[in-house]
Amino acid sequence: MFEMTEIAAVAASVDEVWADLTDASRLAAWIWPARFETEAVVEPVELGRWEVRSSVADLAVLGRVTAIEPPHRLRLEWRWEGEQHATDAELTLESAADASTRLTVRHTGFLSDDERVSHVEGWTNCLQRLVDRHGGAPGATL
After folding, report:
1. Rounded Cα distance, 4 and 123, in Å
2. CA 89 to chain CA centroid, nearest Å
3. Cα torsion through 100, 52, 42, 46, rounded to 10
4. Degrees, nearest 5: CA angle 115-119-120
5. What is the pLDDT of residues 70-126, one digit of tens each?
6. What are the residues whose beta carbons fall under 8 Å from the beta carbon of 18, sequence distance 6 or more?
7. 47 three-class SS
8. What are the backbone dihedrals phi and psi of residue 132, each rounded to the nearest 5 degrees, phi first?
9. CA-based radius of gyration for the chain
């Protein structure tokens, strides 16, 4: 199995970034490009839904919360609509200097390196939009 880790420094508090991950309207505002007209459903409880959908782009993530420790850890079963294979995405938030937040995304369970590389690109783009929303600096891919 293949995995990836992406890190971003976001110029917002842990509570603000947590809200960006767990409030449906806030998540939809940044996770994908505005032209996608993204809709989200978030049930921030264990086994709750965490879904992001774009009818315009014909794209959807059908996630399920597998672990939640507000406001520091969100773990998701991640499955693209139309696919059977699910992966595991864990997002952790840590306070950093100047009241900023270090957001780490560890995504595991990819079946191929091509799938991993595709998700690195996707997470890099998503996290850049979150950084742009608040300010900060993109991190590194590991």
Report:
1. 10
2. 8
3. -90
4. 115
5. 999 999 999 999 999 999 999 999 999 888 999 999 999 999 999 999 999 999 999
6. 70, 71, 72, 93
7. coil
8. -60, -35
9. 14
Quick count: other Cβ atoms within 10 Å of Cβ 128? 15
Please, which pLDDT band fits residue 142 given cuts at 50, 70 and 90? very low
| Cβ burial 45-65 (10 Å sphere, 16+ → b, else e) | eeebebbbbbeeeeebbbbbb
Q: What would the pLDDT profile of 7-40 be if each residue is shown by its tens digit?
A: 999 999 999 999 999 999 999 999 999 999 999 9
Q: What does the block give as tokens for 125?
A: 């783009």
Beta bridge partners of 82: none
Distance of CA 115 to the CA centre of its chain: 16
| Residue 82: strand, helix, or coil | coil
Whether the pLDDT of residue 139 is over 60: the answer is: no
What one-letter code names the amino acid at 55? S
